[in-house]
Amino acid sequence: MRIDVVTIFPEYLAPLRTALLGKAIERGLLDIAVHDLRDWTYDVHRAVDDSPYGGGPGMVMKPQVWGEALDAVCPSDARLIVPTPAGRPFTQRMAHEFAAERSLVFACGRYEGIDQRVIADAERRMRVDEVSIGDYVLVGGEVAVLTMVEAVARLLPGVLGNPVSAEQDSFSDGLLEGPSYTRPEVWRELPVPDVLRSGNHAAVDRWRRDRALERTYRRRPDLLAALPTDTLDKHDRAV
Ligand code: SAM
Q1: One pLDDT digit (tens) per residue for the chain, 239 residues
Q2: Planar angle of CA 33, 95, 141, nearest 5 degrees
Q3: How much is the pTM?
Q4: Which ligand 1 atom is at minimum distance from the Cα of 61?
C-alpha cells in the first residue's frame, strides 16, 4: 500500500517511521511519503491560509495551494481522506475498508480547516472521505492521520506477527475484547481467573465471550444494540 500525507508540519509525522510501521516500511509492505504543503506556494511568505468569507474568527486554508498539491500527489486510483471533526466517525470497519485500497492520500487541515471547494473539486475525480476520529477538536489533522494510518497499517497482510490478533481484537465481532492476563499467577494478591489456567479451551472461549459481552454491555451498550440479533446465541443472551 502507498500512503501520501500532505501537511504544513511534515516533522509531526515522524512517528510513522517508528516501531511496527517502521518495520512494515523496511519490509516493503508499506510505502509512506510525507509532503510539505508549502512546496506548492509561490509567494514570499509561503502563505497557506487566508481570512474566511462571511467573517468570523480564524483563518481558512487556501484552495489554490491545496488544489495544486493534490493534483501533484494523488495517483489516479487514490482515495483521499480529509480529517475533520465534521466528518463521519472513524471505525474499525472503515480501517478494514481503507486497508483494501492501493493508495490513500491524507490532507491535514490546520486553522479553521480547508476551503470546502478543495473537497468538491477532488470529488470530481476521486473518492473522498471526510473523517473524524472523535467528538473533540484537535489543533490539526496530523494526529488524526497518525491514528488512522496506524489502525489501517496493522491490518495489512504481514504487518502483525500473528494475524489472529487482529481477528480477535475489539470490534472485529462487534464487541469490546475482555480482560487479558499474563504471569505471575498471583500478583499483589490478585489471582488470574482459574479458568484461564485450566487448559479447557472450550471453557476459556466461553469465559472470554462472556467477559466481552459483559464489558460491552457496561461500557458500550450502543455496540450491543447495533449487533444483528442472530449473532447472539441463547447463552450470550443469558449473560
Ligand atoms: N473549524 C473546525 C470545526 O469546528 O469543525 C475545526 C478545525 S480544527 C481546529 C483544525 C484541523 O484539525 C481540522 O481541519 C482537522 O484537520 C483537524 N481535526 C481537529 N479535530 C479533529 C477530529 N476530531 N477528527 C479529525 N480531524 C480533526
Answers
A1: 999 999 999 999 999 999 999 999 999 999 999 999 999 999 999 999 999 999 999 999 999 999 999 999 999 999 999 999 999 999 999 999 999 999 999 999 999 999 999 999 999 999 999 999 999 999 999 999 999 999 999 999 999 988 788 888 889 889 999 999 999 999 999 999 999 999 999 999 999 999 999 999 999 999 999 998 888 888 888 88
A2: 50
A3: 0.95
A4: 14
Residues with Cβ within 6 A of ligand 1?
83-86, 108-110, 112-113, 132-134, 136-141, 144
Q: Report the separation in Å between the CA atom of 232 and the middle of ligand 1, taken as the mean of its atom positions.
A: 37
Which of the listed residues 5, 84, 105, 129 should we mutate to test ligand 1's pocket, taking the one with most ligand atoms within 8 A of CB? 84
Q: 184 preceded by cis ω (within 30°)?
A: yes
Mutate to test the pocket of ligand 1, among 138, 143, 148 (most ligand atoms within 8 A of CB): 138
- Residue 112: active-site member: yes
Spot the catalytic one: 17, 52, 85, 97: 85
What the block records as the C-alpha cell of 108 is: 491535514
d(CA 73, CA 77): 11
Rounded to whole angstroms, the Cα distance separating 164 from 156 reads: 13
